[in-house]
């Protein structure tokens, strides 16, 4: 019963930061899920080449991955409000410029440069929202519920975003989805920046007198962040990345699974003569993942983070391997749903581990670097799985997905999170 009572933490989330935070945090990350597919559609339409569109999309993904930790470092030092108020209009302008350039028949090099500008100014709303929850300094149950909700929101956004692109492009022009994304950035990323929870997100405080430096991390949550910047010096970017390297490796493995499985599902549906079903099949994974991301909070504390990752990785590998034997889209959809039930817990666990391992003052770097690791993994595995699928069929892509799950199980061994003892009010 005590584990079931933990679900009440979800009901408490709106009271902590307000319903408005949940709304702007959800809608603020929607453009990110629209832009990748939107850019692919826009550039392919403008140039008549899917290959050119792939280069533009790769430019976008790479710059997003590189800029994420840099933005995280900026917000760790200066707080989130000012950096986001600067980035939001610049990102919207870059999106608008890309639309204009594509419509004017600009060379591919120009389009790629603009895609780099879009990626470099993309605000990692999901990662920065996690920073704000952790800054509240609540107990492990509260933090777990918040991170579970954020992972669920990520999954739902990445189901909804591509669907909005498809609808907007079919009802209007290829330019419309990108323009809609620019408007959403201006409205909701700006609102996210102005929300009261952005106050005091710069640097975490030095330990309270009488407590050990590891006391906060031993509780498994970030320390409360005051509205006044303290004298505690934020760690360097390299120092934070070194600390959270095991979690980053795990997240890269999950990203590789995403890239390989999405490519393999597309190849499978195309070979079956129903390419339009690929998006629907893959969306089933997002739904299963979202549900289980919320359920992770009920896991007993004796099931440690490392064990969770090992089980999830092994399960992802086994189910992905079973996909190589699928003979129908219905059978594949059932397996995709099953693997999604493990992906959600893996994501929540990895973000939880990164939050606990990150040194004081480096939470935003850790959270944004996790997003970057995911992007790099997706891009690398999508390229590999696509090449192998062309040569050997969709089964080869699913084999890459299975290998990614196995790699996650192995990477989990290096994830070492300090043991914590729950206080009575944290159970």
Automatic annotation (TrEMBL):
It is a multi-pass membrane protein. Residues 243-427 form the Major facilitator superfamily (MFS) profile domain. It is found in: Cell membrane. Coiled coil: none annotated. The keyword Plastid does not apply. Keywords: Membrane, Transmembrane, Transmembrane helix. GO terms for cellular component: plasma membrane. The keyword Transcription does not apply. The chain crosses the membrane at residues 21-47, 53-72, 84-102, 108-131, 152-170, 176-194, 247-268, 280-300, 307-326, 332-353, 365-386, 392-415. Pfam families: MFS_1. One of its GO terms (molecular function) is transmembrane transporter activity. Its main location: membrane. This is MFS transporter. The lineage of its organism: Bacteria, Bacillati, Actinomycetota, Actinomycetes, Micrococcales.
């Amino acid at each position: 019963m005590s584990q079931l009572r933990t679900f009440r933490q979800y009901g408490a989330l709106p009271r902590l930061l307000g319903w408005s935070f949940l709304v702007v945090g959800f809608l603020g990350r929607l453009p990110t899920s629209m832009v990748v597919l939107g850019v692919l559609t826009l550039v392919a339409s403008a140039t008549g080449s899917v290959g050119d569109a792939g280069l533009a999309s790769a430019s976008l993904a790479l710059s997003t991955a590189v800029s994420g930790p840099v933005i995280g470092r900026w917000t760790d030092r200066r707080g989130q409000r000012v950096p986001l108020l600067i980035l939001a209009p610049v990102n919207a302008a870059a999106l608008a410029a890309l639309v204009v350039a594509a419509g004017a028949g600009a060379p591919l090099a120009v389009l790629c440069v603009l895609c780099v500008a879009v990626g470099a100014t993309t605000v990692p709303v999901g990662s920065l929202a996690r920073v704000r929850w952790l800054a509240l300094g609540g107990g492990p149950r509260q933090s777990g519920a918040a991170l579970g909700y954020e992972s669920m929101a990520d999954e739902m956004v990445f189901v909804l975003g591509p669907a909005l692109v498809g609808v907007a492009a079919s009802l209007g022009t290829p330019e419309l989805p990108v323009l809609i994304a620019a408007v959403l950035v201006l409205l909701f990323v700006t609102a996210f920046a102005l929300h009261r929870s952005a106050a005091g997100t710069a640097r975490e405080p030095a330990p309270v007198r009488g407590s050990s430096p590891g006391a906060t991390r031993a509780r498994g949550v970030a320390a409360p962040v005051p509205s006044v910047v303290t004298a505690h010096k934020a760690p360097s970017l390299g120092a934070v990345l070194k600390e959270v390297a095991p979690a980053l490796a795990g997240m890269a493995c999950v990203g590789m699974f995403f890239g390989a499985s999405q490519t393999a599902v597309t190849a499978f549906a195309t070979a079956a003569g129903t390419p339009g079903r690929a998006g629907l099949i893959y969306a089933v994974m997002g739904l299963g993942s979202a549900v289980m991301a919320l359920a992770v909070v009920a896991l007993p504390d004796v099931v440690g983070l490392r064990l969770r990752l090992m089980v999830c990785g092994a399960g992802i590998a086994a189910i992905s391997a079973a996909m190589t034997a699928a003979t129908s889209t219905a059978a594949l959809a059932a397996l995709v749903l099953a693997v999604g039930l493990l992906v959600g817990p893996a994501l929540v666990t990895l973000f939880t581990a990164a939050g606990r391992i990150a040194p004081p003052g480096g939470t935003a770097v850790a959270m944004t670097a996790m997003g970057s690791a995911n992007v790099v993994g997706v891009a690398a595995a999508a390229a590999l799985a696509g090449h192998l699928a062309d040569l050997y069929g969709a089964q080869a892509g699913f084999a890459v997905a299975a290998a990614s799950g196995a790699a996650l199980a192995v990477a989990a061994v290096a994830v070492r999170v300090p043991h914590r003892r729950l206080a009575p009010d944290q159970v």
